[in-house]
Amino acid sequence: MRNLKDLVALDFNFNRKSLIKDLLAGISVAVVALPLALGFGLTSGLSAASGLTTAIIAGFLAALFGGSRFQVSGPTGAMTVVLIPIVHSYGPSAIPLLGLLAGLMVIGMSIARAGNIINQIPWSVIEGFTVGIAFVIALQQLPLALGVVRAKGDRTLPVAFQTVKGAFETGVNWQVILVLVVTLIVKFSYPSITRKLKIKVHVPASFLAIVISLLIVQIFSLNVPNIGDIPRSIGHWQGDQIATSDVGHLLWPAFLIALLCAIESLLSARVADGMVHAHDSEKYQPNRELFGQGLGTLVASIFGGMPATGAIARTSVNVRSHAETRLASIFHAIVLLFVALVAAPWVSHIPAAAIAGVLIGTSYRILNPASIRESLRTTKTEASVIILTATSTLAIDLIWGIAIGICLYFALHWKKRNKG
Question: Which residues form the signal peptide (predicted)?
């Protein structure tokens, strides 16, 4: 019981100055998180509303009960990779039970102190995993980017190939392509423009790209799909869809989701601590972080959302926005709730291709080519692990990618030790 009390103990140390910083950081993260939440909800095979619900509920609970000061949680590209084949096989109605099982498993990991073990995954494996995820996220956007129906299947590369093939066979919608290109141009050019013009008012590039794309679609009456209606309420009870007879079928998928939730969340928290050069006393608590993530996934999934994890992109924005406490992540969830309750009718008109452009841009940021080039120049051993982990993640799946990367890492280091 003492372990459990340690996991749920809340710590809020803030003053007026940090409160203002956290509020501004929370608003900044919410602006970035909105298109990502909508996009990952659509990509997973559920809905934009599911993504937004997840960002609000899981984002709030994981921030409140988690073990990191800077972590921002919600739907992520890595989680959609696992969810797509599950939704394809079992349908959206399986998500409440799936999230319940996965959330309980992650909470179980936290009580068993498994966070200390997961936290020891070699950094080269994490690098390769991140590279693979970046490519997977980009390829997942092809249906929205081309304005076509996603090809059948659950393997990223074959599905991407068949989706592109189908787009050319049925005819490419050039208006959709135009929206995609405009979104990418704004997203990548706006930061450099602000630096050259020395603009001090910070507007996230993703947010501006979506606004400009939406204005172009409305002004020129372009015939492009939008993300669809978003209910002006959050948190519909889905517990009545849980059928205990399906538990046996969903135990393995739930375990994969729980493992991914644990790994990605701890990775994101590690990255945040590295960005702020946290001292030992300030570093995140891995087991408490697992408790918060498990609780967030459990509650979000049975209230209309989906499984969630700590999000590297949003957490990085939170740090760069000078957040000081976990209140920044809580404010981010509150701002998104306001958007859902007040601005849902406007948000529903956002072009789906603009969401695809934002996520493709996000995958490029996650990939970080400069960092990857630097990592590949370190040693042949580390480079081999990165390349094989990335390739396995892309060609097979996330969990196999990590497992293969870990095996190669220890095999190469064992061989190197024996040679020495």
Answer: none
Rounded distance, CA 354 to CA 244, Å?
A: 39
**CA-CA distance, 102 to 256, in Å (whole number)?**
8
How far apart are alpha carbons 349 and 240 in whole angstroms? 31
Q: Does pTM top 0.70 for this prediction?
A: yes
Q: Of 114, 34, 93, nearest to 245 (Cα)?
A: 93
Which tokens sit at 189?
A: 């050019």
Q: 359-368 b/e with 16+ CB inside 10 Å = b?
A: bbbbbbbbbe
The DSSP annotation for 225-266 comes to -B-----S------GGG--GGGHHHHHHHHHHHHHHHHHHHH
**363 falls in which pLDDT band (50, 70, 90)?**
confident
3-state helix, strand, coil in the chain (%, to 5): 75, 0, 25
In the numeric block, the tokens 């706006």 are attached to: 190
**N- to C-terminal Cα separation, the chain:** 47
d(CA 177, CA 225): 12
**Is 176's pLDDT higher than 60?**
yes
